[in-house]
Fold histidine kinase.
Amino acid sequence: MRRPASLRGRVTLGVLALLTVVLAGLFTAVDVALSARLHADARTRLTDRMALAQQLQGTLSMQRLADRLRGDGVVVRLCTADGATCATAASDAPPPGAGRPRGPRPGRPETTRTATVPVETAGSVIFVRSTLPGDQVLTLSLDTTQITEAVNRLIAFEVAGGALALVLAGLAAARISRTALRPLEDMTAVARQIAAGDRGQRLGAPRSDTELGRTAAAFDAMLDELETGEVRMRSFLSDASHELRTPLAGLQANAELLLRENPDRDERERVAVAMVRESRRAARLVDDLLTMARLGQGLPLMLERVDLLALAGSEAERARSLSPGLHIEVTGEPGLSVQGDPVRLGQIVTNLLDNARYATPSGGRIAVLVRRSGSRVHLEVADTGPGVAPGERALIFERFGRGDASRSRHTGGAGLGLPIARGLAQTHSGDLTYVDGGPGATFRLDLPSIRPGADRPPGPRTAGWEDSAGG
């Protein structure tokens, strides 16, 4: 039989198959138990009559004894030992499942006895034979054909009733499964509408306390996330193309200037310097985009013990050379080490210092503090710039997010430095957050510290966003 293609058909077929097995097992058990019980009653009937004959022998004539033992389908044959004289008595077959024969009148306790004689079988007839006192041979027989026919009629009734029950159960299961699985059909319809371009469709499950209700709610949440992700991707591509367009436009303008005109040496040098500056700007943006992509796919790290205070001091020297008008100082506890990639950790500190340099006016101050906090090491970078408004503190950690509306490289920047710094911090089982530390902005890098002798040997490791929970 071909397997149904629909889930509803498979559920209905499964229910019918299970019900068929249950009914078959139940009916078989009932038939076997009933047949065994009826045959046992027939055997007991013969042995009881034999016990009664042993009690009454000698008190009644042969014919009267035979007549006394007949009934309930029992056939009696009582003969002398030589077979010269016989008395027989037969009765109509008893109804199926008839009880034991009536014994002697009440008040005679010996009727409860059962003879210990073997019950023999000859085809459909069972019989017992015993020699009574006085050299009389008593044979009691009973035809079990009525029992077999009764069991067969019961089987036929069970088959007919079971078939009717399966038909009704199949109809009920199909209706119930259609109602129960309707949300899945709704999901299919919504998915097709979304694939056709109607992105605003949702299931809107009224109940979330059922399996399908929770599935529908999860389906809606997935659609919301996909739609949000698509919006973010479009925004990301738009911002990336906008940021790349500026340096590329500068390169194009300077190249066209060299082609159209024949500038003197000084002008050519100025144009060349501008082209190098714009190319470096584009290269840095491309490198930032590549770093963001690698953060999502797993970034290879060369792990070793890193002295965070020494690292901060070396990066601060670079920042001083780039911004001599700013006062940059580094303080902290010496000997605070973390396990990490010194190049990537240096990139985090560089991004934080660059962010502080862009935001701090000339003559301002940038303070770098390295300290221990329990089992963690904190590196804080604080500046005396305008700070970040409370409503924009989550935005600055998003790709191409800025703390102001300007697209200027020297104020808002491309908006990738802080997201990259946070992503790198998370690959080292840490985090980067904004804290209220003064009039300007304060960023805190939180990393797990290592105990002396507890660091693992240097070696490569691949880390991604998922490592933020445990490294």
In short: Residues 93-112, 403-412, 465-471 have pLDDT under 50 and may be disordered. The chain has nine helices and 13 strands. The radius of gyration is 49 Å.
